[in-house]
């Protein structure tokens, strides 16, 4: 399995890391809140709410990344090492994005988001 495919697995796991941060950073999540965790997550504020928002954005972008990796692999015109490098850069951008979200660095977060989207698009261009 290629590094790029492993990066897809990492991307699939990142939203759950954000979920754990959102649920347990405030110390308010317990068995009672687990009966309706979505309602609980809607009540969060501050750091925990930003973690929840990072979770939602991670769920939104992961299908596009996975599709880009898979399509680039199927087309097969790009060197595998190029796809691996792009995938690692994308995961790096997602980690930076999550850090920026948690730190409430909105402008930098948006810049990192655009870089991540550019990396997704680049999978298609290197496969032409």
TrEMBL record:
SUPFAM superfamilies: MAPEG domain-like
Protein name, per record: MAPEG family protein
Any Pfam family hit: MAPEG
Chief location bin: membrane
Annotated signal peptide: 1-22
Keywords recorded for this protein, A-Z: Membrane, Signal, Transmembrane, Transmembrane helix
Segments passing through the bilayer: 85-103, 110-127
Matching PANTHER family: BLR7753 PROTEIN, INNER MEMBRANE PROTEIN
Localization (cell): Membrane
Domain of life: Bacteria
């Amino acid at each position: 399995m290629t590094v790029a495919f492993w990066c897809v697995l990492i991307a699939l796991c990142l939203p759950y890391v954000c979920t754990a941060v959102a649920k347990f950073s405030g110390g308010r999540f317990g068995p009672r809140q687990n009966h309706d965790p979505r309602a609980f997550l809607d009540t969060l504020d501050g750091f925990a709410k930003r973690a929840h928002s990072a979770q939602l954005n991670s769920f939104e972008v992961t299908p596009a990344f996975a599709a880009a990796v898979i399509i680039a692999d199927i087309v097969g015109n790009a060197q595998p090492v190029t796809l691996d490098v792009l995938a690692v850069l994308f995961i790096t951008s997602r980690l930076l994005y999550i850090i920026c979200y948690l730190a409430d660095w909105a402008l930098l977060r948006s810049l990192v988001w655009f870089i991540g989207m550019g990396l997704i698009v680049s999978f298609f261009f290197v496969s032409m």
